[in-house]
Amino acid sequence: MAAAAAGRVLPASPNWYCSRCSDTSADGRFFGFAARHRICLLDVSSPAAPAFYGELIGHTDRVAAFAFCRHPAHGGLCASGSDDGSVQLWDADSLAPLGEHDLHQNAVSALHWSPLVKDLVVSGDEKGIIVCYWHSRSDSQQFFPEPRTIFCLTCSPHNENLVAVGYKDGMVIVIDISRKKEILHRLRGHDDEIHCLAWCPVPGEERLPAWQDELQEEGGVPNGDLSQDTTAKKGCYLASGSKDQTIRIWSCTRGRSVMTLKLPPTKRRGGAIDPAVKERIWLTVHWPCGRSTEIVSSSFGGELLHWDLTQPGKRKWTLLGSSEGQNHSRIVFNLCSVKHQDKELLFSISMDRDVKCWDLSTLECSWTMPSLGGFVYSLAFSPVDPGCLAIGVGDSMIRVWNTLSMSNIYDVKTFWQSIKSKVTALSWHPTKEGCLAFGTDDGKVGIFDTFSSSAKNKPPQISSTYHKKTVYTLAWGPPTPPLSSGEGEQPTVTLYSCAGEGIVFQHNPWKLSGEANDVNKVIRDTNSIKHKLPARTEISWKPDGKLLALGNEDGSIEIFQAPSLKLLCTIQQHHKLINAIRWHHEHGSQPELSYLIASGSVNATIYVHNLKSVVENTSESPLTITEPFRTLSGHTAKITSLSWSPHHEGRLVSACYDGTAQVWDVMKEEPLCNYRGHQGRLLCVQWSPVDSDSVYTGADDFYVHKWYISKQEHTRPPQGKKSIELEKKRSIQPKVKAKKKKKPTGKSPAKQDLSDAVNGDESMKDLLLEENGVSDHEGEKEARETELPDKVSMAVSKDTSSSASAYSPFSLSKPFVTQKATPVKKDPPKEKPIFDASLKKKKPRSILPFTTSMDHRSKDELHQDCLRLATCLKTKDHNEDVSPDLGDRIHLGLFADRASLHNMMDVEGKYHLENGHPELFQQLMLWKGDMKGVLQAAAERGELTDQLVAISPMVGYQAWVWTVEAFAKQLCFQEQYVKAASHLLSIHKVYEAVELLKVNHFYREAIVIAKARLRPEDPILRDLYTSWAALLEKDGHYSMAAKCYLGASSPYDAVKVLAKKGDVTSLKAAAELALISGEEELSASLSFRCAQELLLSRNWVGAQEVLQQQKTLFGQRLVFCLNELLCKCLSERNPCNRKSPVPPCYHSWELNRDASFFDMVIKVWQKVLGMNTAEKATCALEQLRSIEHPPSTSNTHPKQVLFHISHDLTLAALSYQAAAWDEAVKSILGAVTRSYDAGNFTLMQEICSIFLPDGCENLRDKVDSTNAQSMAACKSLEAFVAYGLLYDLWWNPPKDSTILQNTGLDPVLCPSEQTALEQSSISGHSSPEDTPDQTATKMDENLNDTTEFQSCEPESDSRTSSVNLVDRQSKLNGCKVLLSEVTAALQNTQRDIAEVQQILADMIHQHQQQRNNLQESTNGSIQEDNVPQSSETESDKPCSDMNQINCKDEVKETITLPELTKRLLEAKQKLAEFPDSLKFYPFPDVLECCLVLLHIGSQCPPELCEQALDLLRKHGTANVYEKAARKFLT
To answer: Considering the entire predicted model, what is its pTM?
Structure first.
């Protein structure tokens, strides 16, 4: 017997929404209630507290009704009815079944044992059938009084034949079972579900004053005059409670309501109920024994009311339970009472999962027994308050049971706030009282304070870090990094959680809102682990906090040393997922036992290891243990939980899926005791910390058992047959089955409102949260669990609705429907009926409409049909070859021969086609067998369908292939190319399918098919890739095109196309791609392009990064480096106020500002770019010499000019480093002349002053004087330096000088005129010396802000304003180098040649123009009008190209061709006489310099002025010079 085996039990919760699923035995010993598919019996004979007696097990589905036999001699007999349709009889004393019947075809919803007939059980089902069963003679009778859903029924205690039945729609009837089918009364008055019926325990209908009033108000008495006392004494009152919130008292003699009690809107403790919100209600009534004027009923939200029917006025009720916390917190379903000595006790069951016992004399609660609504996943005893047991349950609530309470053995507190999911793990804080950590199925970790007085309503702290899956285990342990090493104060213990995704988190209990730490990270760092760590499934700290054991999914257990979590050893013993690990306690007499660690896994064997040697081991590397210290074998299924006895040494208890708990003597490897009291698989076990003989276990049968080791009869787990029997016993658990949908005739009371329980009543979802804090569809669906926690079964059961129907008070397997026959309700139905008239299926169209209509004509016509048919068939009998002639009665072909039938089918087919239903015509032809014709016709009309193609194989293979091809063509017309290709594939035409997709530009789909179906080397694949790439390239989708080229094994093309866009990111990617593909040269050129792009956006850092990847671009890295330093220097020398749109991105190099620029650059090269060997420098020099940049012009972009200059200067710097002075001079000259050619005069000046701050004397000494070329280069460079200085002196006169004031703007105008000429006529170098204003306009404002130009007016000058006259004189003397006679002569000759060449070019141009005009006029085309215009403009052009003066001259005198040729020849002969070294290097215009010197005037030394005038006279023959020099020469 269970009671003997178990000491104390927390049972499964009573089922909900049943009219009578609990009852007391007549002798007052037992109180039984239905819990899922079983009945739980409590022994309530002791007034102090109930004791668990046992369970009645046998039903396979939810028990909806339960009642005891009221006969004193058979007090232990009881009956139950279930959703499985059976009614079972039991002996409560022996817990044994006595018999059953399956007369109901549907779920039993109500049942009662007749109080007067000792062997009669009356039951009703949800279809409305009532069965009377006399069990002693196995006789039965069935009634079907009303086709409605029965909610409750009750037998009269005064007349053995009367049964009252309550229905879902509010109807109450009283029937007489002795006279079959007779309904004595239909009691109408309620307009919603009848929840309960109760007969008055005292017979007779004496009119009490209050009732008299009601009858008088109602006016008259029905059914004749019944005022005599005799009639009143015959009858009996009946009370009914309904969902419409009223209790009615009915007279059974009158057949009418004599009193209506309306539920008062009681204020629930904890806030008023809003009358506008329709609250969930279950109204049960109980008429206590021997009290005819008192009724007890339930009310809103768990209140119980005691009604005094004699009380006048409206207030007839008193509330049960005066003090706080006595009442139920949610609706009450059942009430029943029992006489106990001198007291009458009332028992109630409620949605809040409490069973309560009330004393009806005082209306106070005597005791409360809590119950559990889900699997018991976790048990934990508090280390601070040893009798305090925390229970984690699948109904989203935690129970804290004070097991040591003397006054109340079921002293249980419930915590539900913020949980909202199954509670799968619990752990108490080791030192802080009332601090309980919990983990849930949805990965939440939190901490409750269960101790404080306000704890009851205080929500828990929730960790902000959630696990992705079910939390398996929680453990408190010492902090590990980063918490152990953090700054400031830290907690002494932290919370560790392990969950289904295999991760262990460390939470800081002082700061749960902070991020939790993944322990694996510390393990990786400490042990330098690179490989993937196993998924963690269990965690256990040694009680002294020095060692941590982690169990893994692969069956290994790892032992780590705190706090750094150094791996000491790995136990490779189990080979399946670890479910439980427990360390032995510390307080034994043998200290070495504290190193024992027990572990259980999905394998049934428990291993115990001794880790003493591991801890004492000094080796650095972790050990591996493969031999156990002790092995405990005996269980036959997975181990789920372990617990060491705190009272003994080496004693362990294990919980197992085989449904038993086993106590072991570990040292002897002996089984000591086996507990088999549960009806399900065990999930958790705890040894009582206060009683060495007690153990607590929790299982998936929703029970917690406390049992005594000494009282168990078995010593070892069941083996063989025993374990099979145990499995059978557990397998009686309900099968998970999906129930058939019921028709909408109604539904059993048991199921009535389960939409409320499970799905949450739609119209009152908000209210649900208020009731006990958990909305019902969250809090209560747990009873539907059919599986175990993840950790145990590797997948926490999802509460499926199919399993819901299995056992639960909370499941609703049938659709909820509103009644058809209900009277008008006050409030609209909560849900729409599932079966709606509007959802009726459309009747399918007839396939033979014509013949069917012919058979629905007038009677005469139909008679004629019969006669005609008979005549035809008769003729057919005489002459078989002749087909009967049915005339216009085609429809009779149905009854004649095949030819007539075919004829009929043709007519029908034609009818379908005419009415636009080709699919019906096709169907008819299929029946006829003429499929080929159908296919051909459909193909011709383009009406082939998938269905036709699908049935075409029945005609034959060829026909099928032909049909598919035709369908593919049809689909192409409809532009469904992909579908067409799929159909071609079905007949193995792969190439055709691919080609079809390719032609219609479905390249992606074509490639998929080709790659999936053809050989990899098939050329069509490459062709697809290249065609697609070409198309993509054309549309500008370069990245996609590149992928195509790569797919076609053409990496070169991929690189090219990727680089096409030319932006930085594309070039960078293309360069890397080229490098991967082995195209190093291409990669280098792309990297260089990319770097140049970055340079334009002033990003030198990015440019260097790109170049760094290419060894062949080392020289360019030097150029970019010098360019960066030069730009930096220029911007520092000429700071600009304008903010640049793109700020420059410089390197943060350390620069030596005191050294010369070349030295500074070389230092950076050596330090940063690693140019520290002569070989590297030589290599870079070779690389750069091989590159030639085109000469600059005034149209070259300033940044390009600056980059080319940087290239020249880099060569100079490399030559300077190698002391190759000749080369250095040539390179510097190249840079200077490049800026001169580009027209950027100021840049030329800046370069001279940066690189040659002291002029060229120093260089001249180092150049090889024997080398004519080198000397010429050096002279040219000196000239350019002087040229820059000359202009500087002219533009910046001394402040006190008044010399220039009378010359006005002449000095500015002259050079400008000359420039205009130079630019148009001087071949070779166009001279760029624009006025400062012109120069400024030509400068790009983005040229790294190199220059701010000064205006020409002397007042605004800022450079050499304070230079004294003596200094100016010496500087002007230095300009003597510019007045070179020989160079002047050379330049004059070059000008002559250029002039002649220009005249020749103009003549040729004019001649060409005249010829074209002539040609056009001879053509006589429409373009005549345009000819004069175009010739005019063209002939103007030479004039506009040249200076005005030239034009005028040319107009005056015409020169013949021979004369021109002669002049050209003479000039060229003269040019040949000059030495080559002189012609090779450029030189500033000598005559221009003469003019500037003369303009400087009195400040210029007289001898220089003379020399300048002399040169002008000799060589200034050109028009422009003649005009400019006129005022000086006259």
So the answer is: 0.54
